[in-house]
Write a structure and sequence with these properties.
By secondary structure, this protein is an alpha/beta fold. The chain has a single domain, classed as Rossmann fold. Helices cover 35% and strands 18% of the residues. An 11-stranded mixed sheet has the order 1-2-3-4-7-6-5-8-9-11-10, with helices on both faces. A hairpin with a 6-residue loop joins strand 2 and strand 3.
Length: 326
Amino acid sequence: MRSVNDKIADILACPRCKTSIRPKGDSLACDVCGIPYEMLLDKPTLIMQDSPVKAWFDPHASRVGGHGVKGKLVSLWRSLMPSERVWTRKSQALVRQVLEATHPDSPDSHVVLIGAGFEPVYKRLLSPYSTVIRVGLAHREDVDVVCDICDLPLAQSSVDLILSSSVLEHVYDPERAVDEMFKAIRPNGYVYAEIPFMRAYHMIPVDYQRYTISGIASLFGRHGFTEIESGICSGPFTGLALFLRDFCGGLFSFSKPLEMLVVLGLSLLLHPMKYLDRLCENSRWARINACNFYYLGKKNSTDGDSAASLTQRGYGEDVIQANLTG
């Protein structure tokens, strides 16, 4: 089996000109446009100098664990916190099916997750695979390639599937980010994205927008994707539990330790309520008040692309549809 680093080498590219780029010792440089990049914490760090994320993101900081007493307390707090969201059965099944269809560990398959995938659901769904490539700006845990997804350092038409969970609300230019995804995905490849609708302002100030389910379809449709399926990822009871937690926790924001205790206590107390979403995940009421929506889209093959050869590799639309209906 090929390693993650082998697969990164296949698709890594200069974020500006999309020319293939490889690490050279402790640095990287594009042979075409000459832009230098860094290897920080042993990770390719391809953020352009004019990127707006430079104003708030520190690529030198480790995202794994903490140091000292404060870091240990934060790690303990996170370990006690239940999962923020309860995913619908349909959204979990769809992620599982699209992963099975794209075969992430196959030698010639490249599956990219935007973000670290620290949510328990993603850890479970991705656990059978060892070569999913994680890219982006991790605020928890770690990624394989540090980058601004508005300038994805991925070669054009090189990726079979891009997964994105609760990321696009934190992107300063979602139109540009989705366009970058479209360029990176191969013809007949897929994008799966989850975006919040009913959710409080978080990761302040790097939180820019919310989307309705029709808004998500419009966003991806404007950049060339064809919708295969969309629906509720996390329902209204999850949204209500998170709102109550954030609302009450915010009342104690004058004391960070007290706020964290309130948030932890309410998270544990209200978590069972989130499972009520399983009773209404297919209802119109849940769709109107959902916490998060999901979207699965396809980049259709163009003239000159060999759709037959792509389908033979096992991730054509017929495979996805068979899994969805099987």
